[in-house]
Amino acid sequence: VAAQNCRKRKLNAILNLEEDVCNLQTQKETLKKEHSKCSQSISQIKQKLNKLYHEIFSRLRDDQGRPVNPHHYVIHCGSNGSVFIIPNQLVKFSQKQGNTKE
């Protein structure tokens, strides 16, 4: 009787583990689909942001009325909603200073 009970517990443990494996495989597939959708959304957002970036720079002009070169400037958004156009040199300089402080 003890051996029979032991075999029954072992069989129940195996069945529970098999059920867990099936549940985890289903969860894995669901997560893969969700990851794929998120990756697509990120890609679409990056494309939209890139288009917006180019649209903004196509409309910007310097003091002499010449187009602003997007390779020399970056768009910086402040935490309060303000937007600045900053020269690349200032961004690189501040990043170097931030790295040396760390």
From TrEMBL:
InterPro entries: bZIP, bZIP_sf, NFE2-like. One of its GO terms (cellular component) is nucleus. It comes from Pitta sordida. GO terms for molecular function: DNA-binding transcription factor activity, RNA polymerase II-specific; RNA polymerase II cis-regulatory region sequence-specific DNA binding. Pfam families: bZIP_1. Residues 2-49 form the BZIP domain. PANTHER family: NUCLEAR FACTOR ERYTHROID 2-RELATED FACTOR, NUCLEAR FACTOR ERYTHROID 2-RELATED FACTOR 3. This is NF2L3 factor.
